[in-house]
Amino acid sequence: MLEVKNSLLSTIKAAVEETIAAHNQTMNTPFSTGTLCITDKLRHAILKVLVAHSDNMPHPASGDDAYSNTLTRWQILAYVAGIDLTIVKWFESHLDALSILHEIGYNQVAQGLWAVWAAEGHPLRYEQGKACGTKAWCSGANIVDHGLMTYRDEDGHSQLLTVDMQQDGIKIDNSAWQAVGMQATDTATIQFEQVAVSRAGSANAYLDRVGFWHGAAGVAACWYGATAYLAGYLIKAYQHKPNDYKAMYLGQVSTALAVTQHYFYHVAGLIDREPKQSHELAIRILRANVEQLARQVLDRVGQALGAAPFCNNAHFARLAADLPVFIRQSHGAFDLQKIGELSSVLASKAADEQGSIWQL
């Protein structure tokens, strides 16, 4: 049984809540998550607190049978997601960059806020220590200190570059980002013109490393954290004014959340017990399940509570607008296709031993 007590989470919670309380004091408003107005100033203050704890954050696949460091990491991401999905988008990307660099043995990691920019489709070239071209879908473009980004070399191999964002030759264009949900993420297309960069790792290290999938599960923990927080509003509403239909919807979402919660525990245990395995199938299933869960909770909580929280509750409305955009980092039908293919391969391997991969 995994140990779920998380002292680091308690420390981070206390620091974040102190930051929120200080912000509310300057705004002359009492602390209440439901009425919390997340300004850019508060987002950056909370992010600064989180980044200050980065050195204490465990990398995925660094635990053991008694204590899951992977679960510790996911619990913290889920907590931050329940506050604001823009903040957790930045923080998860920062942590992912640090874990990628750790996994590939890159030791020249500068202090500051990092981000991973791995979307492809725009030309980015590297030659003699300089980068030219564009990189799209870069969240936090105007606030990060360092970017870890992919590009394809002349042989078509995926390569990693680190870039110091505080230099000439960088132009940031936010005009294409028309999102309503996740609007505040500062997502941009970046133009690089003879910008100094450093190569990190070997060819295809980013995609081939087992940690690629461990990091993908961390994104699902963000989705789950926001989903669970939205479901919490239904519990409060039922406790305040019980009725049968609220109880029915609460039963539906509670069942789905509990199953997914325990699958997170299971996958965290797999990763920590077998850190050199990618666990791609289990993580693809986890991500697909959390996406389905998020859509179910948004629908059921909306049916149970009506329009009021979408219109009158700042925190609920923000999460409900951001979450459908964030879960589109899932690849939907493609992920289900890959789950089917990987399940078939696993079934062929297991046929002589147990008959069915789903047998109890």
Which helices and strands occur, and which strands form pairs?
Blueprint: H1 7-26, H2 40-52, H3 69-83, H4 85-103, E1 114-117, E2 124-127, E3 130-138, E4 146-152, E5 158-164, E6 170-173, E7 188-200, H5 205-208, H6 211-240, H7 244-273, H8 280-305, H9 308-312, H10 314-326, H11 333-354
Parallel strand pairs: 1-4
Antiparallel strand pairs: 2-3, 3-7, 4-5, 5-7, 6-7
Helix pairs in contact: 1-2, 1-3, 2-4, 3-4, 3-6, 4-6, 6-7, 6-8, 6-10, 7-8, 8-11
Q: If helices are DSSP runs of H or I spanning 4 or more residues, what is the number of helices?
A: 11
Please state the overall shape, judged from the principal axes of the Cα atoms: globular
Q: What structural category characterises the helix and strand content?
A: alpha+beta
Please outline the major beta sheet: 7 strands, mixed
CATH architecture of the largest domain: Up-down Bundle
Terminal CA distance reads: 19 Å
- Just give the CATH class of the largest domain: Mainly Alpha
How many separate domains? 3
DSSP strand content: 5-15%
Q: What does the radius of gyration come to?
A: 21 Å
Q: Give the low-pLDDT segments.
A: none
What is the H-and-E element order? HHHHEEEEEEEHHHHHHH
Mean pLDDT: 93
CATH superfamily of the largest domain: Butyryl-CoA Dehydrogenase, subunit A, domain 3
- Kindly report the oligomeric state of this protein: single chain
Say how many strands there are: 7
Look up the CATH topology of the largest domain. Answer: Butyryl-CoA Dehydrogenase, subunit A, domain 3
Helical residue percent band: 40-55%
